Amino acid sequence: MKKVLALILVAVLCLGCLAACGGTGDDTTTTTNGTTENNANAAYDLTKVGEYTANNTEFVIGATGPLTGDAASYGISVQQGAQLAIDEINAAGGLNGIKFKFDMKDDKATAADASTGYDALYEAGMQVSLGSVTSGSAESFATRAAEDEVFALTPSASADPVINASNYSFRVCFGDPDNGILSAEKLAKEYKNIGAIYDSSDPYSTGIYDAFKAKMKELGVTYLEQSFDAENNRDFSTQIEALKDCDVIFLPIYYTEAGLIAKTCVAKGCDAFLFGCDGLDGVAAQIDSTVTNKISYITPFDVNSEDEKVSAFVKAYEAKYNAKPDQFAADGYDAVYAIFEAMKALGVENVKVDPAELGKALVSVFTADTFAYGGVTGNMKWIASGACNKEPIIVEIN
């Protein structure tokens, strides 16, 4: 059972997000519920035909993600959420009568495969993208996309190097520093004996942990630290033994390892509260009734929300895939719709629009003060860095 707790800590996630938005796009206005009020923008030549889009009969959105391997759950969720959005948009007539196509290549959560996948997508006619799913892959994808000025709106890659790699790289999810700062402030305020376990080989984990560590130092709070890496991520006996007496253990990691840690806590007689970030979405499926530790994590999406838009998404996702969506599916769904609303605001009518011209125009829209999108993961606004500002919640696993 999941219980949603109110979180009055929005100010933390607004750090750096209150600066004036850059870009032009003054002719574009989109309300917070995602509806377009003005679809005029004459600053870019959206009739220009690019070298690789000459044969397009649909608008092509590309992405890479892990569809096989240990991280496949994330990639498949994003793929399914994005495809659901594509299906809904096409069923409603597409954009000015033009349908959309979504194509995701398997990058196995590696930077090299993300780069290769980008090349294949671009040569096949990709005009805009969802970047990649995991941070290391997304940074590689964004670096390649920058060369061609292709806009990339990653659903889930939260490490800052992803959006720093390109002026055309944006994200839907929370950023790693935001997760780390928020977690530090919450845990320092509520607990005395604090521990942390992070993955020293993973950009997502280290990005959050570095921000957590810096904030804890600023707050003057001491804690115990343990780590692991990709070669040693199956046995957590040593880490839990070292943190056995902690009241809370911070886990800026993914749900697979978090599930193993929870089970190790049972074996070691550790009853610490386990607190993580959005990577823990999915941990409920990794544990059973023997795990009695309280587990909570920060997320922008609650599958049990009574919000009308969220409920409709969950119902549609279950009908299509016979499973409940997780945060990654919701992020993929929102990323496609945010791009669709921005393209609608631009009034894109040429199915063979050049990716570079579209990329520059989309940056202009996303960074305009007047643009916002209200999705199933919350109300979103973007700043020139590509960061997304939205409100978090905390989900508790009972």
Task: Describe it.
The structure is a single chain. This protein has two domains: 21-174 and 306-382, Rossmann fold; 176-299, Rossmann fold (3-Layer(aba) Sandwich). The protein has helices at residues 10-13, 72-91, 111-123, 135-148, 160-164, 176-190, 203-219, 237-242, 255-268, 308-321, 327-346, 355-366; strands spanning 2-5, 28-30, 36-39, 59-65, 100-106, 128-132, 152-154, 169-171, 194-199, 224-228, 248-251, 273-276, 295-299, 373-375, 378-382, 388-389, 393-397. The chain is an alpha/beta fold and 398 residues long. Residues 1-41 have low confidence and may be disordered. It has twelve helices and 17 strands. Strand 11 (248-251), helix 9 and strand 12 (273-276) form a beta-alpha-beta unit. The strands form five sheets. It has a seven-stranded mixed sheet with strand order 1-17-13-12-11-9-10, with helices on one face. A three-stranded parallel sheet has the order 5-4-6.
Describe the structure concisely.
39% of the residues lie in helices and 19% in strands.
Question: What tags apply to this protein structure?
Answer:
398 residues; 3-stranded parallel beta sheet; 7-stranded mixed beta sheet; disordered N terminus; 12 helices
Task: Furnish the topology, listing elements before pairings.
Elements lengths: L1 E4 L4 H4 L14 E3 L5 E4 L19 E7 L6 H20 L8 E7 L4 H13 L4 E5 L2 H14 L3 E3 L5 H5 L4 E3 L4 H15 L3 E6 L3 H17 L4 E5 L8 H6 L5 E4 L3 H14 L4 E4 L18 E5 L8 H14 L5 H20 L8 H12 L6 E3 L2 E5 L5 E2 L3 E5 L1
Parallel strand pairs: 4-5, 4-6, 7-8, 9-10, 9-11, 11-12, 12-13
Antiparallel strand pairs: 1-17, 2-3, 13-17, 14-15, 15-16
